[in-house]
Amino acid sequence: EDFLNLIFKAMMRDSFNSSRPVSSAVQSSEQIEEMFDTLSYIKGASLLLMLKHYLTKDVFQAGIEVYLDNHNYRTAQSDDLWDSINEITNGTLDVKKMMKTWIVHKGFPLVTVVRKGKTISVQQEKFFYCVEPENWTSDASYLWHIPLTYITNRCNFTHCTNAYLLDQKSG
């Protein structure tokens, strides 16, 4: 419950146009210090949980182990983590491409789901809690690769979860 409260507080801060990406280029040590705040840590943890849920616990854990082995006592960048997980997925998913959309964009997407009979359609757009006129910029080009999981009435209780990667504005 405490973690969920932290997530919602971070999402609130991240939903303003004045937010910033989790990962960005820095020029000074002061900028580095500014990057390591609650938003970065909580959003980063949320993104890792999202990835773990999408990939499955075993695949995610294997990717983390590869990452730790490959970068033992060395410096690393976020791409190194995504590359390590890509090794485990054997090219079935470009984890780096997916996660870049989450760490280089500020904010997060709002996904709208519409059901018409047996057809489900989904659409994404950037979520704004409150538009700040003095800081507003159009983010129409923002596109996240959103892992969506769902169950259907065909669930046999051994494999209930299906996955879909929304990597376009709508699908």
Provide a descriptive summary of the structure in words:
- The chain is α+β, with helices and mostly antiparallel strands.
- It contains six helices and four strands.
- It folds into two domains: 3-104, Neutral Protease, domain 2 (Orthogonal Bundle); 108-166, no CATH class.
- The protein has helices spanning 2-14, 29-35, 38-55, 57-70, 78-89, 95-103; strands at 109-116, 119-126, 146-150, 162-166.
- The strands form two sheets. It has a two-stranded antiparallel sheet. A two-stranded antiparallel sheet has the order 3-4.
- Strand 1 and strand 2 form a beta hairpin.
- One of its GO terms (cellular component) is extracellular space.
- It comes from Rhagologus leucostigma.
- Pfam families: Peptidase_M1.
- Keywords: Aminopeptidase, Hydrolase, Protease.
Describe the SSE topology.
Blueprint: H1 2-14, H2 29-35, H3 38-55, H4 57-70, H5 78-89, H6 95-103, E1 109-116, E2 119-126, E3 146-150, E4 162-166
Antiparallel strand pairs: 1-2, 3-4
Count of distinct structural domains: 2
Structural class: alpha+beta
Regions with little confidence, pLDDT below 50 for 5+ residues? none
* CATH top level label of the largest domain: Mainly Alpha
Which value, in Å, is the CA radius of gyration?
Answer: 18 Å
User: What is the CA–CA distance across the termini?
Assistant: 33 Å
CATH superfamily of the largest domain: Neutral Protease Domain 2
The number of helical segments is 6
> What is the average per-residue confidence, as pLDDT, rounded to a whole number?
84
Looking at the overall shape, the CATH architecture of the largest domain is Orthogonal Bundle
GO molecular function: metalloaminopeptidase activity; peptide binding; zinc ion binding
GO biological process, one term: regulation of blood pressure
InterPro entries: Peptidase_M1_aminopeptidases, Peptidase_M1_dom, Peptidase_M4/M1_CTD_sf
GO cellular component, one term: cytoplasm
